[in-house]
Amino acid sequence: MPTFCRHNRLEANCPICSRKRDPAGTTTPAPPTRRPAAPRSSSTTARRRPARQSGDLRVRRMARAADDGYEHDLVPGLRATVEAARLADELAFAAGRLHRLTDDPPGLYAEVAALDDHEEAAWLAFLIAYLAPLEGPEPFAEIERVRVPWATGELPDLASVQTGPRTAHDPGRGAATLQAYRGWAQRAGSQTAAYTGDESWTAQRRFERAFERLALPGFTRGPRYELLVLLGTLGVFDLRPWSLHLTDPLDPVTVAAKRMFGIGDALNLQRRATDLATAAGVPMEALDLALFNWTQPEGERVTAGVGDVDDAAVRDRVRALLRVDPPPADDE
Predict the structure, then answer these.
(1) In the chain, count of helices (H) and strands (E)?
(2) Cα Rg for the chain, rounded, in angstroms?
(3) What is residue 171's DSSP assignment?
(4) Which runs of E-coded beta strand occur in the chain?
(5) Residue by residue, what is the 3-state secondary structure of 114-137?
């Protein structure tokens, strides 16, 4: 009778176990062998050197809370109640931010919403998403300092600009991404034409096509997604996402989603993200900032220029959904 080896193959067909069989047909462990290490040449070292220098990539280890037996079908990757509670809080903040952007946008967001010239509004929204608001009392100060009108055809001087936590700007690239953005709009005829596409498109299809076409050098997933969310939420163009575009393995939101949903496949990630957003009663785009902040250390929430706007109703609803007890009331 054929038998299977530990590699889940027929022993006779396994390239590893078949070499270990003795003439009697039994499997015996092969004695370990040591091979002399080949001398490492300079050419071999050069071939193995990664193309990206260590200073170009910053990796932050995501701390995990202690496993307390927590389980939920919507977030199968979570094993700690405190992590589920944190998710509820971040979804409440992200949903509150979207409400604020719609009803009473602060700072430069208000200017984007009020501009009648869609070319200037789209350009300002791009600068906000690309540079990212600072965390502090004047989140838009640096963007205001370096901005130039779209109509001038000029590019901002970014030599000494300070950027926010979700920026796409790399000082080593200079203004290359801004030049690529202008080229993208020029090829379409205008920013309005590039974002609008066919008038018959739905808001979801328009968002998806714009996201794909905005895959410009240096314009990473997070700021690109944020730009389209801003343009749609602030009423510049009819844009609305149906997915999170979790395809960049180095993107913090993608990493967080894989950990939270306990799977790495992009299609299943999106399906589980959709299930969570639907059950929680929040827009899909709320998950983007919520997942990003969920990865941050305690007390380092990125407010993205809006401030403290937690939606208490969303927080309570999601805590109940995820079976997380409400936080204890403060002692008076």
Answers:
(1) 13, 0
(2) 25
(3) G
(4) none
(5) HCCCHHHHHHHHHHHHHHCCCCCC
Q: pTM of the entire structure?
A: 0.79
- Asked if residues 194 and 184 have their Cβ atoms less than 8 Å apart, the reply is yes
SS3 27: strand
| Cα(7)–Cα(126) distance, integer angstroms | 52
153 neighbors 133 (Cβ within 8 angstroms): no
The rounded distance, in Å, linking the Cα atoms of 276 and 272 is 6
Q: Which residues make Cβ contacts (< 8 Å) with residue 267, sequence separation at least 6?
A: none
Mean pLDDT of the chain: 85
pLDDT in tens, 86-97: 999 999 999 999
pLDDT in tens, 184-214: 999 999 999 999 999 899 999 999 999 999 9
pLDDT tens digits, residue range 20-63? 454 444 444 444 445 444 444 444 443 443 433 333 444 444 55
Residue the block writes with tokens 């690109």: 224
pLDDT at 15: 60
CA distances from 88 to 70, 150, 252, 278, 321 (A): 15, 39, 18, 14, 9
